[in-house]
Structure formats: C-alpha cells, structure tokens
Amino acid sequence: MNNEQSRFNMIEQQIRPWNVLDTSVLALLAVVRREDFVPAACRALAFMDTELPLPDGQAMLAPRVEARLLQDLQVQRHERVLEIGTGSGFTAALLGHRAQEVVSLEIRPELAALATENLRRSGAGNVTVIEADGAAGWPAEAPFDAILLSGSVSKVPAALLEQLKPGGRLVAVEGEDPMMVAVRYTRAADGFQREELFDTVIARLDGFPEPSRFHF
Questions:
Q1: Residue 18: what pLDDT?
Q2: What ranges make up the beta strands (E) of 6-112?
Q3: Cα separation of 24 and 97, whole Å?
Q4: What is the CATH number of the domain that holds 100?
Q5: Across 24-48, average pLDDT
Q6: 212 in a domain, yes or no?
Q7: Phi-psi category of 85—alpha, beta or left, where left has phi over 0 and alpha has psi -120 to 50?
C-alpha cells in the first residue's frame, strides 16, 4: 500500500470517526506529510493509530489525537500560537499552516534539533522551535491567541492561562493515568471558562508540577 492510500485510510478510518469533522483540518492532514516527521525506523508505522517512539524516550501522539487537538484549538490565520512540547515537529507544522506565527517550546535538546530540521525541510517558515522548559510558557512573547500543550499535565498552571489574550484558547490534556480529559480554557472578561472535550490518555510533558502523593 502506498503512502497516499495509507494517508487516506488514516483520515477516513481513524480521524474522521473520532469526531474530527472540520474540513479544513482534514484537508490539511491530507497535504502535510506525516511520514516526514516520523523517525526512519518507524516510517512504515507513520499512519497507524498509535503513539510512535521518539528519541530520548519520548513519543509522537497518535494521529487522531493530534487532529482532534488541532480542531478544538480553533486556530485562525491571523493568530499567534504557542505550542509546548514540540516532539518531532509535526503538530507545529500543522499549526503553522493555520496560524500567522507559531512558537514551539521543547525542553529536550535532541528533540528540539530534530524538530527544527524536520520543519526546515517541510518549509514551515513561520514556526520557531526554542529549546526551553515550557512549564512557565513564554512570557517574553506573550500574550498569545492560542496555546497548545502537546502532552498531558496534572493541571494547567495559572501562569500559562495568563499568557492568553482576551478570547484566547488553551487546549491541553489534564489528569492522571488512566483518567485524563482534553480540556479547552477560554479567556473571558470575568476569568477563564473550562470545557471538557474528550477522554484520552497521552504521555506526560516534562517540567510540569505533579500532585502531592501521600505514602503510608
């Protein structure tokens, strides 16, 4: 089976049935070459419904999760976006096609270098990868129209929410394995509105605080 058929099957059999119905998102997934962001050893699995291993013990999100997060962030062409957890750079590339500018923070040097090269080869000129701990966001460039956490956290820190513009959205996966939920925070005049979107379990982001655990 060739890549184009595999890509079509991924969209129609994995992504669309997972309530990803935004035609612009589906069209984008058809043209951004996911296989170019997958490690060479896993290229044959590029379109499978599974997380894929990345260097330094990290993982690339499953395609349906990437697509759903992208859809629920609702990025517009004039907006500036902050991503935390660049990984291989694929989600940043997708965001770059929808936004005016994307800043993506990656704490692990090997992944930051990998993503930078992948994005350069893909021609994503409006995406900047910065090697940094994203737990505090990127206040030097704030505020942002949208923020995406490409990994799970126990709870979104208030410092990140404060880096949203009025009307801005932050999408993340909160909770503890095996009970996590994707959420969207929207900055309103009277605070932040929190909306639960869908259940999923994804790998943890580095650097974020974990809840206290009691030992007896």
A1: 96
A2: 52-54, 58-60, 80-84, 101-106
A3: 10
A4: 3.40.50.150
A5: 95
A6: no
A7: left
